[in-house]
Amino acid sequence: MPKIISYRKGKGIKRTTSMRVVKRFRWSMAHRLTHGYQGHCASLHGHEYEVEVTVAGEMDAMGLAVDFADIKRACLGWIKEHLDHTTIVCSEDAALLDFLRRENQRHYVVDFNTTAENLATHLREVLQKELNRLLDRPLSVTHIRLLETPSSWVEVT
Ligand SMILES: [Zn+2]
Predict the structure, then answer these.
(1) What does pLDDT average to over the chain?
(2) pLDDT at 10 over 70
(3) Is 0.85 topped by the overall pTM?
(4) How far, in Å, from the CA of 83 to the mean position of ligand 1?
(5) Which residues pair with 49 in a beta bridge?
(6) Per the residue annotation, which of 48, 85, 92, 125 is the catalytic one?
(7) Statement: residue 39 has pLDDT above 70
(8) What's the gap in Å between 148 CA and the centre of ligand 1?
(9) Domains plus CATH for the chain?
(10) Which distant-in-sequence residues (6+ apart) come within 8 Å of 12 by Cβ?
(11) Residue 75 catalytic?
(12) Residue 87, exposed/middle/buried by CB under 10 A (0-12, 13-18, 19+)?
């Protein structure tokens, strides 16, 4: 049964207690596709990435599922520390990894080809861990929309 919260005198307003809260974040990052990929994206290039993170939680007595500021602290904090103004590089891309290390360039090493699909899946995992680590309420990352350009994105649920 959905919980009834009355906030207008004399009128009960039926609300569902489960809520989805969405925040968007942007960062700049370089990458190139590997694993035999032959198109333009095999050359090192950058994107102004944008991610839309959907978090599901239960509403509290205050009417909050989660404070937008808390999602920002957890998600943008992790993104700025690990991804912003870096090159994301697959551990199998030895030539690029050597260059980045030799030139002391910020980089983030992953064990997958750096497609938007793989990155969105990775973001769902790491951002869920950050929310669990930093916030004291049960929240679930239910949806990630990752944009490489304003007209190109992937979604993982
Ligand atoms: Zn790209």
Answers:
(1) 91
(2) no
(3) yes
(4) 14
(5) 27
(6) 85
(7) yes
(8) 7
(9) 17-156 (3.30.479.10)
(10) 4, 6
(11) no
(12) buried
